[in-house]
Amino acid sequence: MAHFFRSSLEQPCGLRVWPSEQLRSDYRQLTPGYSLAPVEDCRDAYRFVVLADLNLLPALFEACSVLVSDESFFVFEYYPEQQLTSDPEQPTQPTVFYSPYMPTLEIVDLLRPYFSRLLHDGFVGFGLANSRLGAEIFYSEEKAFTCFTANHIRTMNLLARYGLPHRQELLFPADFAHDHLSLVSIPRASRPLELQGFSNRELDYIHYGAELVELFEMSPASEGEDFFLSAREQDSIYELLHDHPDVCWEPEDEFVNILLEWRDFVDCCQECFDGCLEDYLEGLKLRDLIAWVADRVDSRLRYKLLRFIADADNRFRRQLTETGHCLSQAETQPRNQRFWHWGIPRQHGASLRRDLIRCGWYRRRP
Predict the structure, then answer these.
(1) Is the pLDDT of residue 326 over 60?
(2) Closest by alpha carbon to 313, among 336, 334, 346?
(3) Which has more pLDDT, 329 or 165?
(4) Close Cβ partners of 66 (under 8 Å, ≥ 6 residues apart)
(5) How far is CA 315 from CA 267, 311, 328, in A?
(6) Interatomic CA distance for residues 25 and 7, integer angstroms
(7) CB–CB of 136/46 below 8 Å?
(8) Which is it for the CA torsion 103, 104, 109, 111, positive or negative?
(9) Lowest-confidence pick of 76-90, 186-200, 210-224, 336-350
(10) Local confidence band at 1 (pLDDT 50, 70, 90 cut-offs)
(11) What does the alpha-carbon distance between residue 50 and residue 46 come to, in Å, rounded to a whole number?
(12) Who has the most CB within 10 Å: 77, 174, 324, 349?
């Protein structure tokens, strides 16, 4: 028997389609299956979106965990404050947490006591990911199951084994007007059987969410950490950096971390750079490395990398002063190619100013 739904599919009780929407013929014909499409800006990665019966999801999630390899990290998103029902007039964004890398099977084992709550709750999403391989599986608060993978043939075969066919068009309950419900807001008598044995405290995602964050030693994700590089793109970058004379780059290293470090460096300069000249030049080396890679990859990947840091580059340009002078050995490079070496940040502390005086920066005048 479906909870809140007049559909043959058993669906989570934490997502309630409006009664008027349930009368629509296309809603009553919701059909299991999956759709797939290439990931934007990635020629070799695909996004699968799956609609499946709720009773199938625990086994399907575990089976699909092999798509993210033997090691992965747990992804968990929920809201920092209690939400009893969704409010479309004042939407809030969940906080996303990442665990350290762990054996995938260990993550799945630890999640089993929480599966029923995670699947039903209308205010949580969870999944597994391996950034280096560009692979992820995720069950969102919209109660859609997604897979990001380069191995689309293997994924299609796996879904077929669970009776899920490919469909050109696929509708989800969340495509109709609906409300999100927390488990504690649902009357006890209306809760699914698998939730009957839990107390209200155990069903409160604030409570069990905190348990999961502690259990997996999770930390909040930084802005921009959803940047996607496929396994093939990361392999091509590794092949380049493996031969770089000044960089020790391991197969498991992720280039997105360099991009994020450059953005963090720009943030520090914008607030007020408090380090010394050596620290500042180390920050510029991050941008040097990005430029070195961007000059050697194909045009599509180059555009993708530079677009991700475009805002940081623009902010850095705007805070540079005395741009007629070069701080390093970049004088031989055209200024428009290595703009980050020309000038100094407008906001800087005593340590950098002292080092600039010692190196004769302020004597460099036409």
Answers:
(1) yes
(2) 336
(3) 165
(4) 104
(5) 9, 6, 20
(6) 10
(7) no
(8) positive
(9) 76-90
(10) very low
(11) 13
(12) 77
Which has the closest alpha carbon to 140: 12, 261, 53, 264? 12
Q: For 250-283, how does the pLDDT look when each residue is reduced to its tens digit (9 = 90+)? A: 877 888 889 999 999 999 998 989 999 999 999 9
Least confident segment among 14-23, 123-132, 266-275, 333-342: 333-342
Q: Phi-psi category of 4—alpha, beta or left, where left has phi over 0 and alpha has psi -120 to 50?
A: left
pLDDT tier for residue 225 given thresholds of 50, 70 and 90: low
Contact, 342 vs 320, CB < 8 A? yes
Tokens 């909870």 — which residue?
Answer: 3
H-helix or E-strand containing 47? strand 46-51
Torsion sign (Cα): 321, 323, 328, 334: positive
Taking the domains of the chain in order of start, what are their residue ranges? 15-220, 231-363
C-alpha 306/C-alpha 262 separation (Å) is 12
Interatomic CA distance for residues 339 and 328, integer angstroms: 11
For the chain, how far is it from start to end, CA to CA, in angstroms? Answer: 82
**Whole-number Å distance between alpha carbons of 83 and 181:** 8
Q: Residue type for 134, please?
A: G
Alpha helices, H only, 46-151: 57-64, 104-111, 115-120
